[in-house]
Request: fold
Amino acid sequence: MTTNSLRTVQEPLKQQYRDDPSAAWLTLRADGQLADGVSCSVQTGQALVAAGRHPATGGDGLLACSGDMLLQALVACAGVTLAAVATSLDLTVAGSVHAEGDLDFRGTLAVDRTTPVGFQQIRLRFDLTTDATQQQVDTLLRLTERYCVVFQTLAAPPALTVSHTRT
Reply:
């Protein structure tokens, strides 16, 4: 994709959102079905993913771990965002994206109630091949961080609620 083709696709949307801010609001959804054992099947846009326990919590490692999926979502979003920003800045960039997250399973398994549940630290790294200047790469990374939906959601968590219905 070229800078011009990206702008051609995005500019009408940007104008629509300027003219009608309510048109920019969209509710994304994810649905899952509780399955046999301790697992849940989640429908993605491309496939059904069966998620289960991580081996550190007694899982057998045959099902996707939701913690891994969170890091994979971050990698995917950051990679797509970086590519779009690079295209917008007319930079040629290749390479890879990596995420690592540290968590202490004592919290998840209620071994120690003072241990937080969830990731304590997440590191996102880009290994890039480019002829861009260091200043251009710095701008690329700054804008990628700013516009990556998953990164920003993790950096400034939204209000969360839990509810249920009986069927």
User: Anything to note?
Assistant: The helical segments are 3-19, 66-88, 105-108, 134-147, 149-155. The chain has one domain: 3-155. The chain is about 40% helix and 25% strand. The longest strand covers residues 119-130.
